Amino acid sequence: MKTTSQFPHARPRRNRKADWARRLVRETELSVNDLILPLIVHDQGGGPQSIASMPNVLRHSLIGAIEQAKMAADIGIPMIAIFPHISEGKKDAVGSEALNPNGLIPNIIKQIKAKVPNIGVMCDVALDPYTNHGHDGVIDEVGYMLNDDTLNILVKQALLQAEAGADVIAPSDMCDGRIGAIRRELEANGHCNTQIMAYAAKYASAFYGPYRDAIGSKGALKGDKKTYQMDPQNTNEALIEVALDIDEGADMLLVKPGMPYLDILATIKREFGRPTFAFQVSGEYAMLEAAILNGWLDGTRVRMEALQCFKRAGADGIISYWAMEAAKELTRPK
Fold this sequence. Notes:
Distance between the termini: 49 Å
CATH class: Alpha Beta
CATH architecture: Alpha-Beta Barrel
Oligomer: single chain
Radius of gyration: 21 Å
């Protein structure tokens, strides 16, 4: 006579018993097609420059940026994102250098598109790399960023980048109405196919510190950015911002920072179903890389796990300073 087994009929571990089985039932998959490589570029001449708070990340010259873009394209990364570090003497209260048609960013866009035509080029639209006060736009006497005065400059900056050949315009300023204003300007000037990736949910985060070192705005920053970047304690506000950006003409949505805001990323993707991206920001990179360099964490495994969590949360792609390392790992023969 058979006796009833004391063991469970359901054994989820069966599907985890071997590598082939785990691959067969895997729910999400990170690929090189999910990666966007951020490139920080400088205008000082000479070679690459190190960034103390971001180990192994460099500021690149024009030649270095082209080389990085070519390496990224060769390994299959679909797009790069360019961020400027300009000389202090070129900064002023209204970020005038952002509108220089012969400036660092327009020149680099043109050169990369000419020499590496098979990679997408994305550019930030914001004034913080160009202002002597470190804010994303024009400020008044008490440090409050003036929305509409800033918009007038951002629209011109976006058009300048599109005319230089940028494929994706990425407004990161969090001004009200900037997506609509930029979309109208692009359409009016024949750039109807230029995509907009809206920093739709960008929070006033402490995780941006190393990036501000990288672009040279940290020491200059007066006050904080809480009057225009979002309160880290809010979720519903992000949904309002996203809905507005979609209505104004955004093609893609971006959540920033990344890992501390996976709940926001998942909610936005579930609610709107639009192409949604995450920015694994400088602070996320720096804290994990520091632990890796100290031998406290397994570098390869931690980097890949950190990126995979974005896919699990619903991201269609990730901007990451680890994009090259991840691409090499993903394309390595197994």
